[in-house]
Amino acid sequence: MAKKMQTMDGNQAAAYASYAFTEVAGIYPITPSSPMAEYTDEWAAKGMKNIFGVPVKLVEMQSEGGAAGTVHGSLQAGALTTTYTASQGLLLKIPNMYKIAGELLPGVIHVSARSLSAQALSIFGDHQDVYAARQTGFAMLATNSVQEVMDLGGVAHLSALKSRVPFLHFFDGFRTSHEIQKVEVMDYEDLKKLVDWKALEEFRKRALNPEHPVTRGTAQNDDIYFQAREVQNKFYDAVPDIVASYMKEISKITGREYKPFNYYGAPDAERIIVAMGSVCEAAQEVIDYLVEKGEKVGLISVHLFRPFSSKYFFDVLPKTVKRISVLDRTKEPGSLGEPLLLDIKALFYSKENAPLIVGGRYGLSSKDTTPAQIKAVFDNLAKDTPKDAFTVGIVDDVTHTSLEVGPAMALADPTTKACLFYGLGADGTVGANKNSIKIIGDKTDLYAQGYFAYDSKKSGGVTRSHLRFGKKPIRSTYLVSRPTFVACSVPAYLHQYDMTSGIKEGGKFLLNCVWTKEEAIKNIPNNVKRDLAKNNARLFIINATALAQEIGLGQRTNTIMQAAFFKLAEIIPFEEAQQYMKDYAKKSYAKKGDEIVQLNYNAIDRGANDIVEIEVDPAWANLEVTPLNEPKETAGCGGCCQPDTEFVKKIVRPVNAIKGYDLPVSAFLGYEDGTFENGTSAFEKRGVAVDVPIWNVDKCIQCNQCSYVCPHAAIRPFLINEDELKAAPNSFATKKAAGKGLDGLVYRIQVSALDCVGCGSCANVCPANALDMRPIAESLETHEDINTNYLYNNVEYRSDLMALDTVKGSQFSQPLFEFHGACPGCGETPYIKLITQLYGDRMMVANATGCSSIYSGSAPATPYTTNKNGEGPSWASSLFEDNAEYGFGMHVGVEALRSRIQHTMEENMDKVDEDIATLFKDWIANRQYSVRTREVRDILVPKLEALNTDFAKEILDLKQYLVKKSQWIIGGDGWAYDIGYGGLDHVLASNEDINVLVMDTEVYSNTGGQASKATPTGAVAKFAAAGKPVKKKDLAAIAMSYGHIYVAQVSMGANQQQFIKAVKEAEAHQGPSIIIAYSPCINHGIKKGMSKSQTEMKLATECGYWPIFRYNPSLEKIGKNPLQIDSKEPKWEKYEEYLTGEVRYQTLAKSNPEEAKILFETNKKDAQKRWRQYKRMAALDYSEEKEAE
């Protein structure tokens, strides 16, 4: 049979291999494993059959713990069951894994191995998670490349069934899970022949069933538990042979040789590496190079990690080996060595003439592991006394563990072309590159590889696409450093990142910019010109920004840039590429409508024709260059910019310039526990907006709504006095401040052009049309960046002149949450920003993992900042599932220490004079009121400092606890409705004074839009590919049923004032409160665009989709109904308009119109029923509940 080749990533290969053997999949989304489950769901929804002739039954659970429980139950019922996970998700499955292994159930877990949250979270790949599960009794199978995932993924299922031992199959997160490669696809018919049907029949017979009942999961005592553990040994002893025999079969089918341990290298090797995962691919390149030079080196790559078989290891170990270096992609603090090293050492214990064995750590959190690093490992082995317990790939100048790494090595096949693209998150660059790889991989006989490096901004961050194309399979599992083609989609990057220093001789650089030839030559910095001239490279520009707008694609320049790439890179003839691109555009965008497909066709044609070449002047090779990303002292700024702190200089700037890879360990001295300074996002000044708002002073009515809705706090109103006006470095437009008590002040709206991301939300809500969206260059030409530096940092925020609980008044208060990495137009962040304007100076935040934790705390950008007194929100994120408990713990901890203060005051009341005693009593009586405790503190502290007594010292030691804190627990609906709901419910059921903000996007936004229990009927989300069949959980109603919880449901765009009221009442409520905020999200596919997210909020409430209300338990005490509905009777006729205005609903209407009609009808009926229920509740008579005075 002809080989079937297909271009795919590791996750798709694992999903394909596992689908064959899976009857039930119990899943929960977590990066980077979610796509495995998404493919399974998608294929099942389309009716794709497994080897048993039926589609897989997939169930999404509320957490990984829940998914593991489902897998366990489904296996007990006799169904072959699979799950997919990573990182913290795998840790949550561990208790069930012991059970599944202990009950000898043939389940399989596919893991895209990922770092664990320790001093910080990381979504990237290493082996910390799988090593943390090595003691559970699961057999563990490692694969090193996309092709191996495809070939061996099925072996895990086959072996589990035959051996009765459950399997964990893992491969490197991102480096394999998200690397796209051209691979040979396994045929399900071949796999079907390998199934042990007798073992399957036995498994079914052992299933729990009332027709042949048994009892399982008993409690055993000290008399028999030990023996029952040992009786299972024979099953584990059999595993290596079973795996080896299946690998032999796979080798016959594929022609690629597989064993529990594979050896690669010189047959008479003296120095070898032992490793597992993607590093083995790069190691093979290095071994080929060294062996050719006569060095005796090799590699043992581990496939079967558990049970660890000495027989199969010694079968492949060359007899000549004198020295072994074991590489572990993990860190186990305090151990004598990492797990694989300890296993290898144990193999040789008491063996005669044992080789010298050393071990080291590499590649944590997907840290790039290059050929030069692997050569350093071999060089270390050649030394008289090789370094043990080493690290490679970092500079450890503190404990000196790191190996010296030599110059970069180019080992890839010379026919391979490497390309590098710098894009802006969500501009479509990555998607277009994935299509390019698939075109070249699937339509030609070339091999293709793609790997995508992201920062942790949401959309709007920098993306780097590393592509390689060549005539031979590509083993380079590391980033491209010597590209033949570089493309840059964002001109601002020219000054931020080094994109051209590695360009190959004769390479090409393509820049998307709005400049003419002459302007480009003027604007392109010297370092780029010098790099191009030195390497005889060619320079091209294209105005994809203007083209995209002209064609009607908005800011998505991806298709235009893709066409330009095919034209310039000359990997395949352009005419062929043009046709393939159009085929793929149709496939990719058909579900978004024919019109979008047509626009992309247009972009493909124009992208190739509108390229302009600029001659590279050889004299450029001698230009002077300035270092990148240095803070620029803007001419005429007069020193009003914020000076860099040491932390910003040492850590923030290098990381922002993509130079964090080179920071030594010593850079983090003093930050060992993962602490980062607040307010570093203000130093980024990314300048990624295409258009920014320009303020029209004459039209402005001073309502401050623009500032209120801005997701990024990049537009602010100021009240400026005469002295501040005089001290300004530039003159700028102002108008007389309107309002009582504002005499002698002028008003100005200031936009920070370099922090704005150009969403246009402000211009959209402005009632006076006083903001015009214009190209960013216009703003910078009129020195708006200098004005921003002056006003934001040097002019007082006069928040005490107007009531803070109005939309206008609240915006004169300094936002203590600014310039974060959320998407343009984000529906979540304006809510958080307002809370910091009201309570930021005393606010403590516990944040659930999710979008909000990523935009609130992605190193090195910290958007929570401080006021002029150095106060601001203290922010921390623990995990996903435990956020309510984490915030609750913060509150309990603070209050325990405040009780200690109270105790000290009470004990010493008679030892102080009357004015201090009065202050003590005042503090005790008003302990739960922030404003009063602050006033008392300011008078009390100096008086206590004047006393020289032990009890005064005791209170002063705890003075940071004198002011009552505002405790907030923040997260999304995936946390609040699903994985964290048990904890949230418990915390709300307490009587503690905590506040919860749930930003409800109705999907798991951070992992890519999977369905949660907040997803309404009929919405299409991942894991609800056929539309969600059941209605949204009513979290507000559940919370109201307790009676003592303050509950509000809000939608900022529907009623700005109502949200302020809700926040104020929630904070004032002496007890738990929860605010559920409707948050439009990029995942919804709002057809009007994210600039209209506030309009979408308004429509959602107007049509009855999202009613707004407040439930205040304190009203009950005065005999009033606690529930007050704040929205008008819905206009139900607009309901359809709302649903069809979002792709998440529209998709179903296109793919399955009949089903969509039924589900939409149900969705509307659910909303109407919910509205009627709220109305009934709001009409109840509470007069009998009135408490006596």
Automatic annotation (TrEMBL):
GO biological process, one term: response to oxidative stress
Residues holding [4Fe-4S] cluster 3: 823, 826, 851, 1081
Gene3D superfamilies: 3.30.70.20, 3.40.50.920, 3.40.50.970, Pyruvate-ferredoxin oxidoreductase, PFOR, domain III, Pyruvate-flavodoxin oxidoreductase, EKR domain
Binding site for [4Fe-4S] cluster 2: 710, 756, 759, 762
Amino acids binding pyruvate: 31, 114
Site (Important for catalytic activity): 31, 64, 114, 1006
InterPro entries reported for this sequence: 4Fe4S_Fe-S-bd, 4Fe4S_Fe_S_CS, PFOR_II, Pyruvate:ferred/Flavod_OxRd, Pyrv-flavodox_OxR_EKR_sf, Pyrv-flavodox_OxRtase_EKR, Pyrv/ketoisovalerate_OxRed_cat, Pyrv_Fd/Flavodoxin_OxRdtase_N
Enzyme Commission number(s) from the entry: 1.-.-.-
Root EC class: oxidoreductase
CDD domains, alphabetized: TPP_PFOR_PNO, TPP_PYR_PFOR_IOR-alpha_like
UniProt binding sites for thiamine diphosphate: 64, 828, 851, 972-975, 1001-1006
Domain 4Fe-4S ferredoxin-type intervals: 691-720, 747-776
Pfam (any one): PFOR_II
UniProtKB keywords: 4Fe-4S, Electron transport, Iron, Iron-sulfur, Metal-binding, Oxidoreductase, Pyruvate, Transport
Cofactor(s) for this UniProt protein: [4Fe-4S] cluster
Cofactor note (record): Binds 3 [4Fe-4S] clusters per subunit.
Binding site for [4Fe-4S] cluster 1: 700, 703, 706, 766
Gene Ontology MF terms: 4 iron, 4 sulfur cluster binding; iron ion binding; oxidoreductase activity, acting on the aldehyde or oxo group of donors; thiamine pyrophosphate binding
UniProt xrefs under SUPFAM superfamilies: 4Fe-4S ferredoxins, Pyruvate-ferredoxin oxidoreductase, PFOR, domain III, Thiamin diphosphate-binding fold (THDP-binding), TK C-terminal domain-like
PANTHER family: PYRUVATE-FLAVODOXIN OXIDOREDUCTASE-RELATED
Name this polypeptide is given: Pyruvate-flavodoxin oxidoreductase
Lineage: Bacteria, Fusobacteriati, Fusobacteriota, Fusobacteriia, Fusobacteriales
